[in-house]
Design brief:
238 residues, alpha/beta, Rossmann fold, 2 domains, disordered C terminus
C-alpha cells in the first residue's frame, strides 16, 4: 500500500486530500504537516524507506503560527527530502504559485511533478485520481504553465538503456559492449550527450561551481533515479 506524507498549510485542503486518497483503501497518509519547521523536524526521525510519496506545498510558513509564507520554505523541504535525506520516492509539488522561477527551482530541487492547485472543489476528485497514478509512478503530473520547464527532450530507448546500465554501476566499456558502441570512450561521449538532455539549466547552476563531466554525470544520475523511483547503485562507474 503506497504511503503518503502531506506537507500543506491549508489544513482543510489537506484533510480533503487525505480523505480522498484513503477512501478506497489503496493509500495511507502517514504524516500531515503545515509548516517548514515541523516538516524538517519530522524528517529527522521519519523512516523514509517506508514512504512512497510526499505531497509538498511550496508556499508554507517557516514555523508554527507564523503569519507569512514563502515558496523558499517548500523548496527547502523538497531539497532536504531529495538530497540530504536521499529520498528516491515520488515528490509532487502542489501549490498556488504560478511563478516560472518557482517551477524551475522545484525541478532543480528534485520534485517529480508540479501542479498549480487552483482546481474548484468539484474538480478535486479528478485531481486526486491523477495524484494516485502519479504517486504510483505511472504518470508525471505537470501544470500547463510549467510544461516547458519539466518536459525535457525525450530519450530514445537506447539512451534510456544507457542510463539504466550506468545506474546499475556498469563501466563505460561494459556499456559499449552491451549497446554496440566501438569503445568505452564512444559510449561515454554518447552518455554525456544524454546528460545534457536530462539536466535543466537550474541543474547546471546547482552543481556547486563544478562544470566537469563527472559532476554532470552525478547530477544526471540523481535526476534519473528520482524520475524512475530507484535507489542509487553502490558501484561507481570507472
Amino acid at each position: 500500500m503506497p504511503t503518503v506524507a502531506i506537507i500543506e498549510d491549508d489544513t482543510d485542503f489537506a484533510e480533503i486530500l487525505k480523505e480522498c486518497l484513503e477512501e478506497d483503501g489503496q493509500n495511507k497518509v502517514v504524516a500531515m504537516l503545515d509548516n517548514e519547521q515541523d516538516a524538517l523536524n519530522w524528517l529527522k526521525t521519519a523512516d523514509l524507506s517506508n514512504l512512497d510519496c510526499a505531497l509538498v506545498d511550496l508556499v508554507i510558513p517557516k514555523e508554527p503560527g507564523a503569519l507569512g509564507a514563502t515558496s523558499m520554505a517548500g523548496l527547502r523541504i523538497v531539497e532536504q527530502l531529495r538530497h540530504a535525506n536521499g529520498f528516491y520516492g515520488t515528490i509532487l509539488v502542489l501549490t498556488n504559485s504560478r511563478l516560472f522561477e518557482d517551477g524551475q527551482r522545484a525541478l532543480a530541487a528534485g520534485c517529480d511533478g508540479y501542479l498549480c492547485k487552483h482546481a474548484k472543489m468539484e474538480d478535486i476528485p479528478q485531481m486526486v485520481a491523477e495524484l494516485k497514478l502519479a504517486l504510483n509512478g505511472q504518470v508525471m503530473l505537470v501544470s500547463r504553465e510549467m510544461r516547458h520547464v519539466f518536459i525535457r527532450e525525450e530519450l530514445s530507448s537506447k539512451e534510456a538503456r544507457l542510463m539504466a546500465l550506468l545506474n546499475d554501476g556498469h563501466t563505460w566499456a561494459e556499456i559499449a559492449t552491451e549497446l554496440g558502441y566501438k569503445t568505452g570512450k564512444a559510449a561515454a561521449t554518447i552518455g554525456y550527450r544524454v546528460f545534457d538532455k536530462i539536466l535543466t539549466p537550474y541543474d547546471l547552476q546547482n552543481l556547486g561551481g563544478e562544470t566537469s563531466q563527472e559532476a554532470k554525470r552525478i547530477r544526471a544520475l540523481e535526476r534519473w533515479r528520482a524520475r524512475m523511483g530507484q535507489v542509487p547503485a553502490k558501484q561507481q562507474v570507472r
